[in-house]
Predict the structure.
Amino acid sequence: MNNSIKKSISILCISMVVIVYIATILMSKGVLDNENIFSLSNIIFLVVIVVIAYVLSFIVSRIITFPLKKIEKGMRTVADGKVPDTKHLKEYTNLSELNDIIDAYTDMMRLIKKNNFDLNSQQSKTEIILEHMADGVVAFSISKQVVHMNKAAMRLLNISSSDDSFEKISQKLKIDLDFDKIMYLPNYTTFEVKTNVEENVLNIVFAPFFSDKLTPMGVIMMIRNITENVKLDNMRKEFVANVSHELKTPLTSIKGYSETMMNGDLTYQEVIKFSKVINQEANRMGRLVSDLLQLSRFDYKKVNWKKMLFPINDLVLKVCEKMKFEAEEKNHTLECICADKLPSVYADKDAVEQVIMNILSNSIKYTPDGGNIRVYVGSVNESIFIKVIDNGIGIPEQDLNRIFERFYRVDKTRSRKMGGTGLGLSIVKEIIEGMDGTIDIKSQVNEGTEVVITLPTKMTVK
Ligand SMILES: Nc1ncnc2c1ncn2[C@@H]1O[C@H](COP(=O)(O)OP(=O)(O)OP(=O)(O)O)[C@@H](O)[C@H]1O
Ligand SMILES: [Mg+2]
């Protein structure tokens, strides 16, 4: 028993002894009547004693019981999930041992408060992360009800909060899964499915979660949109297939012609003819490889642009002159119309030459004999535009947004016959982007195509 309580009890005992002593003296002096217990003096003495006892017990109870009651009330408040105020507890007592209990209680409450704060901030942090993450997360309780679902999950799975159970969600996704099997998966194992929701490909991982290491509490479903990865993977496969195919075709003819030549018995004209074919095919392979190397340099950002200011008219006229022979071979008329006093273009001159050559060569290739090709150069909004218009076969609308893809050709066989590999416009696009310019293609089947590129001038350079 602590000292102060002992002290209080001793005070009570001493008070009792003193009262008994006073009562005995008062009896011997005849103030109290020992013959008639209910005499007036006895009753008055008893009332005084009762009042003193009441005051003493009130003092003792205020010192000991009141703070204890407060502590008990505080504990109950904690049980209700709140943290009580401990500020004024010490005002009720000055017993040192009770003060120790109050101090310990105050420390405990401070710790609970801190833990509560940590827990709340951890919880809100987790909620914010869950709400803002790109992956979807759905948690199911043991009774297969949704206990948590973030926005990404609703968006990716195209579901709403009314889809609140495992059955409803798996029905919507058209996946047939056994919830209990997932729940009782061995520790640290997951179950994975791939499914399509509208245009997206989703990878869904299911895993059980536990209260402790042994008791399963439910299932977590993590949803990741892998559409881009699947697309990239398909593009990579398609690219490898395209490269192999483009290399195989010229290789086969080189092999065939060279074997025929090796067998002998050929006239001089035949040897010349076959050698020409071999040379053409080798050139084609060389072009393909250099185009691929150029694209790979773009991919690895290994291109050092030599940007400078130069007059665009001179360059466009030079390219038109270079392409004149090719156009004449197909009886095309090639016109080049340049505005006067144009500001200089700020770009890599060789790269811009390659761009104009590519676009012009497409117009020449994809316009039937006797066509009309016009090149306009002018300025708009402090930029230079170069417009190449032909009256050729045109590009169907559905192909227009794909022609910048590597190896994409509207008509593979026709384009291949013309020596095309389908890399020209993808290189053009990369260069134009590198020059901070723009490219736009409009086309009508059997009417013609209009390609407009814009390039920055000195004034528009950032
Ligand atoms: N002016 C045009 N008229 C009609 N079709 C065009 C025109 N320009 C491009 N195309 C279409 O766009 C496709 C892609 O053009 P791109 O220049 O990338 O490849 P290519 O000309 O086939 O081959 P490469 O340029 O590598 O020799 C072409 O195959 C063709 O179908
Ligand atoms: Mg081309």
